[in-house]
Design a protein that fits this description.
There is one protein chain. This protein has one domain. It has one helix and six strands; from the N terminus they run E-H-E-E-E-E-E. It is mostly beta strands and 76 residues long. The two termini are 19 Å apart. 5% of the residues lie in helices and 32% in strands.
Length: 76
């Protein structure tokens, strides 16, 4: 999961990725499903945070691919 409070990055579509995010959080798990939660402590009133999930996987040919989910925003 990635997150940022930078509006320019958070609203930039494909430019909001694991290289531009303020926070990059992840966990590898070998199974059928996994739930990941991002919590922000000490958020200041009026802050807006942008977050999106992403998946990095290796296909049958050995190519590493990254898929990004929908950008979600939350206001403190």
């Amino acid at each position: 999961m990635i997150a940022t409070d930078d509006k320019n990055i958070g609203t930039s579509g494909d430019e909001f990725n694991d290289s531009t995010a303020k926070y990059v959080l992840g966990n590898a798990w070998n199974g059928n499903s996994y739930r990941y939660t991002l919590s922000k402590e000490n958020a200041q009133e009026g802050e807006t945070w942008y977050a999106r999930a992403y998946l990095v996987y290796t296909d049958a040919e050995g190519n590493v691919n990254t898929i990004y989910g929908k950008i979600i925003l939350a206001n403190a």
